[in-house]
Specification:
alpha+beta; about 70 residues; single chain; 3-stranded antiparallel beta sheet; about 30% helix
Length: about 70
């Protein structure tokens, strides 16, 4: 499991939960529930990192965001 901060929000327009990963530009996933969206985000994070490595790009370290 990756340790990146996930922001989860409901999208009325898309009728699902959207997860964005602020440390990884363009890394976004969705799901019918917050849990499903977070699980899908883990898959997309892995794909984002794999693609960045293939392209020789730097992989950002996870940052800690204290959101309540």
């Amino acid at each position: 499991m990756y340790k990146y901060t996930l922001f989860v929000q409901w999208s009325k327009e898309d009728n699902c939960y959207i997860v964005s990963v602020p440390d990884l530009p363009g890394c976004v996933a969705d799901g019918a529930t917050p849990e499903e969206a977070a699980k899908n985000a883990q898959i997309v994070i892995g794909e984002w990192i794999e693609t960045a490595k293939e392209m020789g790009r730097e992989i950002p370290e996870p940052t800690y965001t204290n959101v309540i």
